[in-house]
Amino acid sequence: MKKSFVIASVLLSGVIFAQEKKDSITTNNLDEVIINTFIKKDTDSSNKMPLKFIENPQVFSSVDKSVLENQVLFTIDDAYRNVTGLQKLWNSTGRSGDGGAFVTMRGFQTNNALRNGLVAPVTTTIDAVNLERLEVLKGPSATMFGSNVGSYGGIINRVTKKPYENFGGNVSIAGGSYNFYRAQADINAPITNDKSLMFRLNTAYTNTGTFQKKNVGNEFYAFTPSLRYKLNDKLDINVDLEMFENKAMAEQMFFYLPSLGLRSIKEVEKTYGLDYKQSYVGDDLKTKSSVRNVFGQVNYKITDHIQSSTNLSSAFSKSNGFSPYFAIGANPTNPTEFGVVRADQSTRDSKKTTFQIQQNFNFDYQFGNMRNRTVVGADYMRTKNNQMFISANFDWVPFKGGDYSNMNGNTLQDFYNNSTPTEYPILGTLDTYSAYISNVFTPTTGLNIMAAVRYESNDSKDGKLYSNDTKAYNQAAWSPKFGFTYEIIPTKFSVFGNYQNSFKSNGYYATDINGNIALSDPETANQFEGGLKMNIVHNKINATLSYYNITVKNSLLYTGEFFNNISVQTEGGKIKSEGVELEVNAYLVKGFSVIGGVSYNDAIIKEDVNEANVGTRPATAGSKWLANFNATYQFLNGNLKGFGIGVGGNYSSDNYITPTFYLPEYFILNANAFYDTKKFRIGVKVDNLTNQKYWIGYSTANAQQLVNAVGSLTYKF
Q: Which residues form the TonB-dependent receptor plug domain (predicted)?
């Protein structure tokens, strides 16, 4: 009752304040902004050429920064709640190489590895302070982006803010539940009098606890400057930096072993006493993570029909520190008593670097009523792993009544100093060479035919995986893509279809619990998809309905066994994933916008060395049913002009993290309110409004945040 009263008071205060203030918002301008940011889904990047939503043969989702502002969200990881068919599996662990948040789309695990179309992985929690737009391209997309940036479910691309010609910006402060507080700034300024050279700085500092450990003091720092030099109408140069510094404890992960014979995490809670709110560790078990991503782009207009884009990206991540993890296990002295096996997998001076250079030429010609658009590109990328993991089991404790503080930074370090921990390095260099061409031909108004192909060669040098030396290898493949759209009603209603291909060189993998490894052959994936697109009521409503069928051959599949927390796998598996997605973005009446959708995915293992897995759902596939929505109403005139209120939610059905053990379904409800004027913006939000207990994970069960509220105040200049 007390929590409900606080929540109601916060939202009511926003209404009262809005009634007492007036602002200078121009209704027509705001109306146009809402349509362009919430509804418009045209893109220049999804196929490396400009395509309107109605003529794009691929399913594409986007989340504009204004959506995050209204919902009072500060990270990319939280922005995922607005993408139909996307489910978060892990929050960031901060570990170099694999520490970023993991999600699943269309039955396949992936994470955010692209920035402005180039590889720029972030292995920490990704601050959204420099985000202009989040783009999600569905399905296997190796043809245009390569095999190393996503999964067969799709790719995620961050489009960052760019400098503009006028002086302006804003500063914000925010605070909320679990000792959350944050300060951020966005400052833009022209440097030269002619405004050809422009500078922009986005930066933020966040400190927060969790519902299990309020005083943990996780720290997140983002510093993202950008520079733009627009010499003339033909030459445009952009350079920006992403610098993230995190010092944080990863969320609690409970691995589950099928041999225990339990059915769900709820059974572990109710029958055996697992405490959802309990922190099972002490203090100072954090990982310090650093990310340095540099992006450069030179755009040159050769003629009215030919443009050149030269792109460069350098990405670096590093981590040091502890990373506790747990397993649900039996008491060594009493096999009938379940509890927590506490362990750690630290990183020690662990580094990963990626360098990429890419050249694209775009052609756009009109021949009478026919139009032809082409992009021709070449790409070189070097990925270098210099990672070191250290692993050890610490102890066993009961679910309730134990002394959990004795696993802390000092005791764990002493444990490592007085024992021989297992070390397993991941060392190696991969050179990737690619060339591609994509063509969209419009023989008549309303009909667009796409054909594309990529050739990619992955050249891996000698390296090391765990205790094994790895020999050099080379694997290459062709990746074709075809698609069409036909506008049944011009610019308003179209049918589309696509065939998309992808592949992956998985390299070496652990074949058994003794740590032996083998070189895998490449995986291949093929998708067939068809559906409808709608863009009606003066572009105020757009919707996509699609059916897809993806088949993956020669897949690596998990056995459920582990070598020092490394999953043992088998090769030669076959996975079929098919499903339906419906996404709708609508600006129904002035001030009222809705984004949402529903998806169903049926992923199944068709072939596996382990016959027991055939017919089951892959552990990384997530939930079959997903749904998301957010409805926002903003007053555009009258005494409440500038005030807005919104409500949103996410539903996930049961998530089987093994063939027989699942995380229960959940529905999370969120609410937000804001008041926006020319100079000030006030925002409040309450996430998990009903205080729902819910779990995410793949091969693990990770308890998520309970009800929490945040308020923010922004001054604009």
A: 55-148
Quote the CA–CA distance of 308 and 302 in Å, as a whole number: 7
Distance between CA atoms of 197 and 235, rounded to whole angstroms? 12
| Residue 315, helix vs strand vs coil | strand
Phi and psi (nearest 5°) for 253? Answer: -120, 130
CA distance 694 to 271: 17
CA 48 from chain center: how many Å? 20
pLDDT attached to residue 516 = 87
Nearest to 618 by CA among 250, 259, 152, 121: 152
**232: in domain:** no
- Give a yes or no: residue 208 inside a domain: yes
Q: What is the pLDDT of residue 590?
A: 87
Cα separation, 498 vs 531, whole angstroms: 9
For position 36, what pLDDT does the model report? 66
Opening angle at CA 450, ends 446 and 456, nearest 5: 165
Instruction: Note the pLDDT of residue 568.
Output: 87
DSSP state of 51: B
The predicted pLDDT at position 5 comes to: 36
Give me the domain span that covers residue 687.
Answer: 2-222+237-716
What whole-number distance in Å separates Cα of residue 610 and Cα of residue 511?
Answer: 13
What per-residue confidence (pLDDT) applies to 176? Answer: 97
* Residue 102 C-alpha from the chain's centroid: 7
Listed in sequence order, the DSSP H helices in 326-442 are 409-417
Nearest to 574 by CA among 619, 604, 547: 604
Q: Distance between CA 119 and CA 302 in Å, rounded?
A: 26
pLDDT value at residue 3: 41
Provide the pairing of β-strand 108-110 with 180-190: unpaired
- Total number of domains constituting the chain: 1
Phi first, then psi: give them for residue 305, nearest 5 degrees.
Answer: -115, -10
Long-range CB contacts for residues 230-234, cutoff 8 Å, separation at least 24: 230/196, 230/198, 231/196, 233/301, 234/300, 234/301, 234/302
Q: What CATH number is attached to the domain comprising 190?
A: 2.40.170.20
Give, as one character, the DSSP assignment of residue 277: T
Report yes or no: 344 and 325 within 8 Å, Cβ to Cβ. Answer: yes
Buried-exposed string 392-424: b where 16+ CB fall within 10 A, e elsewhere = bbbebbebeebebeebbeebbeebbeeeebbeb
Q: Could you tell me how many residues make up the chain?
A: 717
Tokens at residue 294, please?
């540099």
Residue carrying structure tokens 């599996």: 89
Residue 231 located in a structural domain: no
pLDDT for 630 equals: 96
> Mean pLDDT by 10-residue block, N- to C-terminus, for the chain (717 residues)?
39 38 48 66 80 92 94 96 96 89 95 91 93 94 90 94 96 97 98 96 97 95 97 95 96 86 92 95 96 97 97 96 93 91 94 97 94 97 95 93 94 91 91 97 96 96 90 94 96 96 90 87 95 90 96 88 78 95 92 95 93 90 97 93 96 94 97 96 97 94 97 97
- Evaluate whether residue 227 is within a structural domain: no
- According to the model, what pLDDT value does residue 244 have? 96
The type of residue at 575 is I
Give the chain's radius of gyration (CA, Å): 25
Using CA atoms, how far apart are residues 246 and 94, in angstroms rounded to an integer?
8
Q: How far apart are CA 82 and CA 70, in angstroms?
A: 12
CA neighbor of 528 nearest in space, from 485, 577, 575: 577
What stretch of H or E contains 16?
helix 2-20
